Amino acid sequence: MTLAIEARGLGRQYRGRWALADCTLSIPVGRIVGLVGPNGAGKSTLLNLACGRLRPTTGSIRVLGGHPGAGRGQLARVGFVPQDTPTYARLSVADHLRLGAAMNPAWDREEAHRRVEQIGLDPRQRAGSLSGGQCAQLALALAAAKRPELLLLDEPVAALDPVARRAFLDEVAQLTKQREDRTVVLSSHVITDLERICDHLLLIAAGRVRLAGPTRDLLGDHHRITGARRTADSLPSGLTVVQESHTARISTFVVRAGEPLPPGDWHTEPVDLEDLVLAYLSTDEPGIAPRTTGGVR
User: Which PROSITE patterns match (predicted)?
Assistant: First the structure.
């Protein structure tokens, strides 16, 4: 299987602190990947390693079969829009397009101009006078016109209003329809946005990968069960308890089951993407991880 990103034991250390540690993952080509996790989890570090702006402290990472940032050809295959959606305030929109054409060998001039016209930008307007949403759209247009095989987006919609955010995400979805082999990795705190367009999930917490895989499969494997108060150890063996809560009489668990959930004296509900992410993040403490039950007592 061709992989967009493959990491093995990947780690990055800053001044004695590990921003990312023992990260092992495989992201297939052609997916829209939702990258989630709390602030400081290591999401931006992973994206910067993938585009070659950072080098690993430990382990390895390969992008589209090559080393990140290894020459002009590899750089041309990857588009990156960082958190601050950088543009040059004194340059006009047209200047940005000319700069993009000069720096990228596979530059799609027609695509770049089409996108600028579609989002209603005046080519003569300086970037410093654009709104946050317009800057984000311009940055996406520049990244898309590179015709990248892999597009990395680091919380580009964080400062956008709901209308601008919806328009931006629609553009991202259209990019993947243009090329079946294009992969997008989108980091965001807004789970509902990811649920709309992402078909693959990568959850990072405390610098480590906690959950990864096709969204549909992950949702199908997880369940919320509610019943009379009990301990996690009393659940059938083979269930991984992700989250638990208790009242005086009722216990609720979010569990992962590799096979169909066995029958029991409980009520079962599916979980949505936000439920799933929050369940894993709620156990994000040193030394705490989802645990597998040992059998019925």
Answer: ABC_TRANSPORTER_2
In 10 A of CB 169, how many CB atoms?
Answer: 23
Distances (CA, A) of 231 to 159, 235, 275: 43, 7, 21
In the chain, where does the domain assigned CATH 3.40.50.300 lie?
3-205
C-alpha dihedral, 2 to 175 to 162 to 118, nearest 10°? 170
Residue 248: count of CB within 10 angstroms of its CB: 5
- According to DSSP, residue 125 is labeled S
What is the pLDDT at residue 297? 28
| pTM confidence score | 0.87
Question: What span, in angstroms and rounded, lies between the C-alpha atoms of 194 and 87?
Answer: 25
For the chain, the residue count is: 297
Amino acid found at 172:
V
Under DSSP, the state recorded for 38 is -
Tokens read off for 42: 């290591």
Please name the residues in contact with 117: beta carbons below 8 A apart, sequence gap of 6 or more: none
Q: Block means of pLDDT (10 residues each) for the chain, length 297 residues?
A: 91 91 93 92 94 95 93 88 84 95 89 88 93 85 90 83 81 80 91 90 92 94 95 91 95 91 90 94 55 41
Chosen CATH of 3-205 out of 3.40.50.300, 3.40.50.360, 3.30.1200.10, 3.10.520.10: 3.40.50.300
